[in-house]
Amino acid sequence: MKLAIVGATGLVGREILKVLEERKFHPDLLIPVASAKSAGISVMFNNLTLVVQTNAEAIELKPDLAIFSAGAVVSREWAIRYASAGCTVIDNSSAWRMDPDVPLIVPEINASILTSSHKIIANPNCSTIQLVLALAPLHEKYRIRRLVVSTYQSVTGTGAKAVLQLENERNNILGAMAYPHPIDLNLFPHGGDFLENGYTTEEMKLRNETHKILNDYSIRITSTIVRVPVLGGHSEAVNIEFEHDFAIDDIVAELSETPGIVIQDDPAKNLYPMPLTARGSDSVFVGRIRRDESQPASLNLFIVADNLRKGAATNAVQIAEYIVNAEII
Known about the structure:
Layout: E1 2-6, H1 11-22, E2 29-33, E3 42-45, E4 48-51, H2 55-60, E5 65-68, H3 72-84, E6 88-91, H4 107-110, E7 120-122, H5 126-142, E8 144-153, H6 160-170, H7 201-214, E9 220-227, E10 234-242, H8 248-256, E11 261-263, H9 275-278, E12 284-291, E13 298-305, H10 309-325
Helix pairs in contact: 1-10, 5-7, 5-10
């Protein structure tokens, strides 16, 4: 079993290596891959020092499986090359998510659709993963009509340059800017690039990917993406309108029984999901579970997850585990 990690030196790539170790997913050969400027440097995996390869070098080693986290430009060029060489690719970028021939997978929801014919598999956007994990069981039982989502997204979702900007600002150091504004002691409703309809690419991803994963394009979805000065962990305030009414106790029971969900909902003890406590965890935390009293059959939730873990690295590794265990590689 040969596994390539493309983008192994980046924030998510290093998290993938960490998750692989924690979950004891140890291939016979792990191939760390990065751009030509990073080739030759070393990374650690399972107490071994491994030399970073280029994509061309990695393909020559004939990996069985590759997890990509190197951005859409790299994925568009190289995922097909890996797949053509017989490798199954799990891609963490936006490059393939909306391709009708590429499955968009959250393992707890829809891994069963995967077959050996799927040589490129897309990992959803981080904010989508935590959202749909909570929505899927509720949609199945009550049918969602409409979603209103406001996200509060960590700087780690932008990357190392954004983390450095936040750290520099907190230490009163002038440096490169990942954002058009200061992020420390600030927040702004800007994630991705603005489109002609006034929404951003991140907001449209949330809508389009939720439709695809839940396989229901009738759900009306609107969202606002907000970037906040947090180091790890995306938060979402979610308002859901259902076709069928519900009891709060039944909502809590459904979510409690959903793999990957942890309920944190005891306001009397100030217990609710927060990025500070979600950081480093593979779970999706749900709290502030309450009826929307302004309209019928409607619910409010607050959903938090570590965007580098379940929102990226862990979800990709879970897909790899499913592929191997189901013997569809």
